[in-house]
Amino acid sequence: LRRLELLTAEEAAQAQAASPLPEQVRAVVDVLAGKGSHASQALQSFIQTSNLQLYLHITVYEPMVQKHLESLQSCYGNGLEPGALQRLTNLLLVEGLTDIQQKEHDILQVETTKGLPNVSKSIPLEKLFLPLSKGSIPPRISVTVGMAGIGKSTLVKLFVCTWAKEDINRDIMLVLPFTFRELNTYEKLSAERLICLTFPHITEPGCILAGAVRTLLILDGLDEFKTPLDFSNAVVCTDPKKEIQVDNLITNIIRGNLLQEASVWVTSRPAAARQIPSGLVDRMTEIRGFEAAEMKDFLDQMFLNNRDLSSQVLKHIRANRSLRVLCTIPGFCWIAGSSIAYFLKHCSDQSQDAAVVPRTLSEIHSYYFKMALSRNWLEKPRETLRIEQTVNTSKKLVGSLGRLAFYGLLRKKHVFYEQDMKAYGIDLSLLHSSLSTRLLLKEDMQTSTAYYFSHLTIQEFLAALYYYTAAKRAIFDLFTESGMSWPKLGFLNHFRSAVQRALQAKDRQLDIFVRFLSGLLSPQVNALLAGWLLVKDEHSGFRDQAVGILQGCLNTDHAVSSRAVNAMHCLQEIQHSDLAKAVEEAMRSESLAGMLTPTNCSALAYLLQVSDVCLEETNLSNCLTYNVCERLLSQLLFCHSLRLDNNQFKDDVMELLGSVLSVKDCWIQRLR
């Protein structure tokens, strides 16, 4: 009202002329004047309210929104690759997180589900915050999940850019994007201060706090938040001006105690999204990975000036089922594509023995690191600076980054700040080097600078490199950073400790780390990185014993778990494939009957994911008993086409199969 008093007569006249509504209402007042003073007073009150909203809209909201649009356009720009957009304009509409999404590592999720979605419903991006039907209301809390590197932040950028151009969701007056990377830098905030600090041009935050304008809050990257959200014990706060702990602020916004009129959109990796109670989520969507044509387009964009190279890389990816599945994730496809292309361009420089096309995770990442260390990137010509002059500096940097990566992994920390860098002895001046910029990305924010690894697997590979190197001289358990533990001497003891830790971890976040640690013992990886990051033939004498430790994880009388399958992946990384080859050959010749011991069941579960024998149909005819069925049950869930004839099944087995078919996570489409 005070603001209205300051309006000039000319501004008031312009505001009045902008809408005929008040005149129409006055006509209604005249008609209703004889029907009682209450109706007349109510309508007069409505006129005053309408005028107030109109004046505020013209004099306050519109200029503020215009400044906000200009600010978002300058911050987010138009730097989106056209090829990346089509996949993100349609999201999968899901009913909630599956068990595998809540419990497994991102890479294991992709491998188990073969990179294929288990839902058929989708929703266009422009309808993400609209009601699904005429009778429903718009969602208040929307959650979009996606694996590391699949494009969650790119999706947010796409939405904000499109909205700022006023192409979609014109009913939303303000879109306020926040990242958990930036929220990590604050200890306490109020809802009002959160808005004012991030968007200083919003001079009237009260209109957002009071719900006077429709607002969308975007909270990007919940998996990067430093504090777990605790909805059970969070302190209730309804005062938008009261400063509280940032995690409590987020829980109160999601619960609707603060900014209750605003819509909220949270993006997250699946495992972190389970922190939000399902009862609070009105709509959940998922970002799908690449389809075959999209993968080809992506690689063509990577090698824009060399289509022959793009075709060769794609041919190799398609020839390896496991690699093809993982490359449905754009972030991993970039790493794999770069590594394979580097190999193809330089294999003539290697001896015949060393020239093995990269297939495993460890081999892919070893080529990626070798490419980074030699500064021989595909899009740049060979630099004249001699490689030898930078090797020692690079080793030191990789060692420091490895320690940061390892202890970050243990703490589930994937974003780091300047104080973290200094604490781990990382020279910030070296972070501008060619090597560093390929491993670590930098984001300048209002209050600080954030650093994060270019993909989750880069952090895990660096962590494994650090552990592998440190295990040679470590006296105490490396998983205890303080060093206070029982003495633990020798590489094998440390290797066994890492495997046990991974088996015991409830969140499964050490599974890929252990795969890389196993892979560093393979002769192929050692040959690649010898002289760079590894010593030639180092630990080769421990390889057989490490194989024994991993095989010990397979021999169980219980159901085959994803832990056993991951141990099989570790054996492949270490280049011990005898067990898998024997079971695969038996599958080809349909002679599995009588050989499905607990260990072989683990190998079979692994082959269900990676073998081309199971690509079109999984044939388990004439080889299953009740005990074998019980062991394999959790793995059979993800077979699209399953052939089980001639197994002499009795009622108890049929009950087991019935229980599988009724599970939410069941992917079986054809059963014979």
UniProtKB/TrEMBL annotation:
Task: Extract the GO molecular function terms from the UniProt entry.
Answer: ATP binding
Q: Where located?
A: Cytoplasm
Q: Which Gene3D superfamilies match?
A: P-loop containing nucleotide triphosphate hydrolases, Ribonuclease Inhibitor
**SMART domains to which the protein is assigned, alphabetical:** FISNA
Q: Which InterPro entries match?
A: DEATH-like_dom_sf (IPR011029), LRR_dom_sf (IPR032675), NACHT-assoc (IPR029495), NACHT_NTPase (IPR007111), NLR (IPR051261), NLRP_HD2 (IPR041267), NOD1/2_WH (IPR041075), P-loop_NTPase (IPR027417)
- Residue ranges annotated for the NACHT domain, each copy included: 140-272
PANTHER family from the entry?
NACHT, LRR AND CARD DOMAINS-CONTAINING (PTHR24106)
A Pfam family matched in the record: NACHT
User: Has UniProt tagged this entry with the keyword Transferase?
Assistant: no
Predominant cellular place of this UniProt entry's protein: cytoplasm
Q: Which UniProt keywords apply?
A: ATP-binding, Cytoplasm, Leucine-rich repeat, Nucleotide-binding, Repeat
Q: What is the official name of this protein in its record?
A: NLRC3 protein
Quote the cellular component terms of the Gene Ontology held in the record: cytoplasm
